[in-house]
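Hi F.,

I've been meaning to write this up properly since the lab meeting, where we talked about keeping a consistent format for the predictions we share between groups. The idea is simple: the sequence comes first, exactly as it goes in, then the structure tokens exactly as they come out, then a line or two of notes. No screenshots and no reformatting. I'm using this chain as the first example so we have something concrete to point to.
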Amino acid sequence: MTKIGRGFLSFCAALAVLLLANGSFAGETDRAQWIKLGDGQMEAGKYADAVFSFTTALAKGEDTAEFRAKRGWAQYMQGSYKVALFDYDEAIKKAPANAAYYNERGLIHHALADYGLAIADFRQSLKLNKTDAVVWANRAESYIRSGDREKAGRDLDQALSLDPNFTSARLQKAWLLINEKQPEKALLELSAIESTTTPDISFLEARAHARLALADWKGASADADSAITIDQQYDWPYLIRTQARRWLGDYEGSLADADRLLVRNRSNMWAMIERAMTLQFLGRTDAALAEMDRAIQEKIDPEQGWRMRAFLNFNAGKMKAALDDARQSATLKPKSPYAVARLGWAFVENGEAAQGEAECGKALTLAETLDAYSCRATARLLLKKFKAARKDAERARDLDKSVGIGPFLIGRVDLAQGNPDKALAQFDQAAKLNMYNQAGLLMYRGDAEKARGNMELARTHYQTARKFDFGRYSQALDERLASLPAQ
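Output, unedited:
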């Protein structure tokens, strides 16, 4: 949330405090001295002291809207939101046409997570003054928190039309686009920021996430490096970099970053997950599973531990173990769309496509997620419900256009329907995006080339798929290679 400036007397704040202490405010009332002292304390970040000074000033004269707002803002800045709200209620009663007071009260409601009330206050502020870009940005943030991203986007566009150099609003817009799975557009907003100011930590964080979503591992890693150079206290650069380094083949560097985070906080679940993923890339699935076992045993996040354990076993081709783990996850959180979708995947890979379709359908009643649509598309493909499978795959693609699972599944449907050329076009698209399942993509690319009669190219794809496979496709790849004519 962008906090507004309030026009306090910033000049000579420390001198004002010193003069008051010496009784040197010639010609000023005692009340004015307390107000000036409070202003100086606000500038110095001494909010509790400022509250005392403004309270004293209020006791020494007329109860005005200005003094109420001053004290209310000091209370807001020190985190005393409910008492700050009382002062702003009084200020607005005394000055109902003051746009700034509605904006400031909106910030308090936002801090209290009363987003509907915050939006109402920002709306009233904008009725009184439509040209304040900060208020448009403030309301956008409340819309984001309340789940209305469309209205948030419109408010941010309005803020930027009023002030194209409003850096924090443009950064908000970039994050909104990242969360809406539009990283390319987010990078355009970030480029506009970079042309006008020196990148800081917040800028680097947004750009690193956008680049990571686009599988720009080198760019994401470079942004993480820059952030660490500026300040090593943040966790996110190491989380970004451990993923990027893994995909770049720097497994030891990836483990080192995850280990740094775990030294800081032994219960950092995301660091444990990243470490487990890298261990599996190194062929150490048992060690990867041990990471999740610790998360489960130490009750760091048991449901996610079981779910990630299911995923690791799934990748390793241990389908029965993956199903057992997924059942544990769904038992702990039966209303989690991610846990239920993982259970659906496990059924699909254990040859129970109809049960998998049902579970993933159940997950979709809880929330529309990429994982649930992908799971159901795969189940329906195996059940030869091609039209329904394509519809689910297209929905998966549209939910997140930065990852390759949607085009990959559309290509599989095309291939199953006897269209290898169309399938290869989809596989090409998937390969350009963030695609975790490289082994599966190469295997089905090999199937498409085989269908076109390109046996040696199919062989090359199958052999390359083996390098990316952790065990999930081992038997299928052996069978496909054996089916090709001898060289």
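Notes:
The chain has 28 helices and no strands.
Residues 1-28 have pLDDT under 50 and may be disordered.

If this format works for you, I'll send the rest the same way.

G.
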